[in-house]
Specification:
With about 325 residues, the protein is of the alpha+beta class. It is about 30% helix and about 25% strand. The protein has 9 helices and 19 strands. The strands form 6 sheets. The chain has a 5-stranded antiparallel β-sheet. A 4-stranded mixed β-sheet has the order 1-2-5-3, covered by helices on one side. Strands 15-18-17-16 form a 4-stranded antiparallel β-sheet. Strand 11 (about 155-160) and strand 12 form a beta hairpin. The radius of gyration is 20 Å and the shape is globular.
């Protein structure tokens, strides 16, 4: 079956929406790596109600994949089957109430940090160093510069996107989230729509200074202007429970600057992979796997991907469409 025919067939099976359903959308322009194949169908819901109604009526055999601004995402070259969900402006609102901030899952972390600064709320400064959305930050308990989402989290609202109970809306507490290092306890398929956080009273000038320190440190140590996906691997723990630095292990294994096709281990920070200009997703994923192999051989430590990888390898939707 040609890709256009399959996309058309899927579109006829999808429930009506108030937002947008578009077939065959290239995903590379959305991704910070600028690689990857198309979405079979892209859905941009009008609001949380539109999202819940769509998921409740969606056929159970149609997979759903959520992307944010794709700052920590690698889309494989063959594209993503089923429905790719992208939360747009309707989910990017930010409200301040005292020391609490409620933000939509599509709100950029940096914008939440700036809203907290302007309101004189401390504790959100670390978000200026995380180039993603609140939805992604909740999913992986994002953290940097000594703080994590769990430190400010109060509550969240989410919709089930899994095959069990699709479309059900849930209010989530810290106990429900059970945050741990770079993860939460919510099942795969959970789609966050908004969250409330609480900081502490602070001075806008001091908060702004701390944010600038974080931005300067990030600029100095990370390839922020390159086509990258953020930290590639989570920091592992040794047998004694001590947290190790992934970049140091990669350095020990001699991988700094390592090249595969158009992909390279960043010479500036070797826990970052970069697209030097003509990389494929296969180049980047293959390079990451080679780094994991060399680190294991050199140090005996198994690195685990922090970057989320989705979709089919080449030969999936993208090849059928050509």
């Amino acid at each position: 079956m040609m890709a256009a025919e399959r996309n058309s067939d899927l579109m006829t099976r999808l429930p009506p929406v108030r937002g947008r359903l578009i077939a065959g959308v290239p995903l590379a322009p959305f991704c910070w790596f600028r690689v990857g194949g198309p979405a079979e169908v892209l859905f941009e819901p009008a609001d949380a109600g539109d999202l819940a109604a769509f998921l409740a009526a969606l056929p159970a055999d149609v997979p759903v994949t959520v992307i944010g601004v794709a700052s920590n995402l690698l889309v494989r070259d063959g594209g993503v089957r089923g429905v790719v969900l992208r939360l747009g402006k309707a989910f990017a609102g930010i409200r301040v109430d005292g020391r609490r901030i409620t933000a939509g899952a599509g709100a950029m972390d940096v914008n939440v940090a700036r809203a907290a600064r302007d309101a004189g709320i401390a504790g959100f400064e670390f978000l200026i160093g995380i180039p993603g959305t609140i939805g992604g930050a909740l999913t992986m308990n994002a953290g940097a510069y000594g703080a994590e989402i769990k430190d400010i989290f109060v509550a969240a609202r989410a919709v089930s996107g899994g095959t069990d109970g699709r479309g059900q809306v849930a209010a989530l507490t810290p106990a429900d989230m059970a945050f741990a290092y770079r993860r939460s306890a919510q099942p795969e398929g959970t789609i966050f729509t908004e969250a409330t956080f609480e900081g502490r009273s602070g001075q806008a000038a001091a908060i702004a200074l701390r944010m600038k320190e974080i931005q300067d440190a990030r600029q100095d140590s990370q390839p922020v202007k390159a086509r990258t996906g953020g930290s590639t691997f989570a920091n592992p723990a040794n047998e004694d429970g001590e947290t190790l630095k992934a970049w140091e292990l990669i350095e020990r294994a001699g991988c700094r600057g390592l090249i595969r096709g158009g992909a390279q281990v960043s010479p500036q920070h070797c826990n970052f992979l970069i697209n030097t200009g003509n990389a494929t997703a296969a180049d980047l994923e293959g390079l990451g796997e080679e780094v994991r192999r060399r680190v294991l051989a050199e140090t005996g430590v198994q690195l685990h991907w922090e970057i989320r990888r989705i979709g089919d390898p080449a030969g999936g939707l993208a090849e059928v469409a050509s």
